[in-house]
Amino acid sequence: MSLYMVPIQTRTGDPTPYERQLATAIEGVFGEGEHSLEGLVEGLNSAGVFAPDGKTWTAESFTTEIARLGDQ
Amino acid sequence: MARVYKPGALSADEIFATGLRDQWHAVCPSSWVERGAIRKLKRLGEDWVLYRQSDGTVRMLADRCPHRGAPLSHGMHLGDRIACKYHGVQVDGEGTVLSVPGMPGCNLEGKKLVRALPVQEVGGAILAWFGLDTETEPTPLVVPDPLADEGVSEFLCYTEWKAPWRFAVENLLDPMHGAFLHHESHSMFGGEQSARFRIRETDRGFFFEKTNQRGVNFDWVEFSRSGVDWVDLEIPYPATAGPGGPFGIVGMATPIDEGTTSIFFWRYRRVVGWERDVWRFLYRTTLEERHWAVLQQDRAMLEGMAPDADQAENLYQHDLGVIRLRRMYRAQAEEQAKALAEA
């Protein structure tokens, strides 16, 4: 009997380069101990990791985008 | 008189090895049985067929056609029933023979001849009631509270280990291994490597917890019996995981057979709004594989243990939770074997 051992069960493909870069940047900001939404948005912008449209993040654009990414 | 297959009178050892009866057990992820699908699974040492009716209802039957014992899982899905591939006998989700196409009017028609288990879906998994007797009414299933809480977000991780189910449950009742086995991990590198433990009773089970440390490593676990046996525990995340505090695990382990176990881990976090969304994004993108690496440390250890590893142990204070659990399951296995012998 072959046993079911699948390391990634919550997505069907690899994350896109954009998703990887965003995740790394978010973890970087969080890792500094900055856990507020405002601090996160500011941290991403100062790291040069911008929204998909190339604009700097705002709290509104970030929460909209992360809701989309979080619910995929 | 028509015959219905059921396993014979199991001994206490057999019940202990293949899983306690008269309770709910998690069977598989809901996604394994899609609409129109038929799936064969072994659980508690027996073969079952699961299928999802066209109306979405999941059914679980003993994988034996009442005619000649052929596997119903080889059959055809007919919307609300399965037609056996061997001679076309049609059985519905309650185990009743609806039609014997080869011999219309055959006296098997209308009789309930296949064992059917009551089924419920909870948190993206299928749970079934494994009664000691086919006629026993299921006890109510109380959903583990983190899975029923709207302020909680969770992901189910399912896997299978070549280890007895009791090793998997005992592993969860043993928080101290976190500071050693998982010392090299993203979540359990911190805290003391020595502790004193205590048992704290609840109305549905008990806590097994460190007396000197909480919120630093795997420091406590709650064992609950609410129709289904489950544990709840909490492990801290590093700062990189963002706001929301520690993550929790609701864990269940279901015997496939005496040497193989289905593992259900609902990893959850008390997060709402953007904090929920960002955790779900990070979980999918980076955290899930780190959690998986930790789970592989458990798997390697438990699969490496001899099947009779627990025959010559020398336990100490940290094993009180394990001892308590074993005593409870052992006594229950004895009771169930007695009830079967007397039936």
Automatic annotation (TrEMBL), chain A:
Pfam families found in the cross-reference section: HTH_62 (PF20552)
Recombinase-like domain location: 3-71
InterPro entries, A to Z: HTH_62
Protein name as it appears in the record: Recombinase-like domain-containing protein
Species of provenance: Gordonia phthalatica
Upper lineage: Bacteria, Bacillati, Actinomycetota, Actinomycetes, Mycobacteriales
From TrEMBL, chain B:
PROSITE patterns noted in UniProt: RIESKE
Organism: Gordonia phthalatica
Keywords: 2Fe-2S, Dioxygenase, Iron, Iron-sulfur, Metal-binding, Oxidoreductase
CDD domains documented for this protein: Rieske_RO_Alpha_N (cd03469)
Taxonomy, superkingdom: Bacteria
One matching Pfam family: Rieske
Taxonomic placement: Bacteria, Bacillati, Actinomycetota, Actinomycetes, Mycobacteriales
Domain Rieske: 24-128
Molecular-function annotations in GO: 2 iron, 2 sulfur cluster binding; dioxygenase activity; metal ion binding; monooxygenase activity; oxidoreductase activity, acting on paired donors, with incorporation or reduction of molecular oxygen
Protein name (record): 3-phenylpropionate dioxygenase
